[in-house]
Design a protein that fits this description.
The protein is mainly alpha-helical. It has one domain (3-124). It has 5 helices and no strands. It has helices spanning 3-24, 26-34, 44-67, 72-91, 100-124. The longest helix is centred in the last third of the chain and has 25 residues, at 100-124. It is elongated and about 45 Å long.
Length: 125
Amino acid sequence: MRSSRTAVLANFGLRAAYGTAMLATPGRIGKPWLGRPAPVAASDIPLRGVGGRELALHLAGGAAVVRGAPLRPWLLASLGGDLTDIASTIAQRRQLPPGGLRACLLAGGGSALLTLGLLAADAAG
């Protein structure tokens, strides 16, 4: 397996683990981003949705790596998820706890930059 495909597989595996953690413990994972106003918050619902997206998308992308299938569609979908998370967070930044926007920009922006690098490496073959 080419090293760029190995890097994509590792990234997808970590993203699937993140999605699993978000499904299992949305309050803990989402606290730096959205805060934690109550023991069980309504924010758990969309956080679990994001977790499900991360898990499904990145497990399917990992399967594409293992099968030797094209990775570009999966990387673009992953990048799209990051960018929509960032855009929606920026749009609602005034409702976030202190540091919420920064947390999203660091996590989502870092992930988006990594994905762009993986796209470039995959294209270079």
